[in-house]
Amino acid sequence: MIDYDDEARNYDAARGGEPRALAAAAAVERLLPQGPCSILDIACGTGIVTRRLLRSERVVVGVDRSPGMLSLAGRRVPGGVVRGDARRLPVASDGVDAVVMVWLLHLLPDPASVLAEAARVLRPGGVLISTVDKDDAYFVQDSDIAQVTAELRRQYAPRVPDGSASVLGWAAKRGLDRAGHTLFPGTGQGRSPRRWREAIEACRIPWCSQATAGHVTDVCRRLAELPDQDRARPDPQYQLIALKARRGIS
What we know:
By secondary structure, the protein is of the alpha/beta class. Helix content is 35%, strand content 21%. The protein has a domain at 4-134 and 160-190 and 235-245: Vaccinia Virus protein VP39 (Rossmann fold), CATH 3.40.50. The chain has helices at 4-11, 17-31, 67-76, 112-121, 144-156, 164-173, 193-201, 213-224; strands at 37-42, 58-64, 81-83, 96-101, 122-132, 176-185, 237-245. Helix 3 links the parallel strand 2 (58-64) and strand 3 (81-83).
């Protein structure tokens, strides 16, 4: 598990920085309610996306459990962040018009309790916006890297907790309807064959850690044979879905 207090200072730079945050915030905007509304950004991290949601007609609050992350978020959203656990939000039931969760569900062993809390704080007609299928983001393009790593991923990639089918199934049983969908690029995060190979060899790709040494060696060899070893392939394409609350959920 990542130590987010320790990672806070370099977190943004290692994950696409302002360009990626701009793309993420623009995608969230496409799914948010129009006009005056209150927004809760769960797991807001450094506030790099939260800040971009601020408008004069909105109340925007970021919540995170990492003091290190919140120290940075507080500079970006002065007076608009609070420390809290996504499973026990410091927000009243039916308290906000929109809940935003970007790059959170894929980190959780079981997102059900976090989704339930998000639904609890939504007002009737409110919108829950979340990234889904994060592990698929690098593989939506028909790229040569995707082709080389497909079999390794098929065999060893774990069942992702933020799968869209699972999230939509959960929502349907709890009075939330699918209300929208959009994509946005992980700007600056496209990897070259060499970077993929180095990441696999250094065990920075979690689903490769369970693979046999022979399988990893074969994939790395094939990656090394691809042309343009240092040319980044297309940026990953992240998915956002919006779920609209039909009624209050206890």
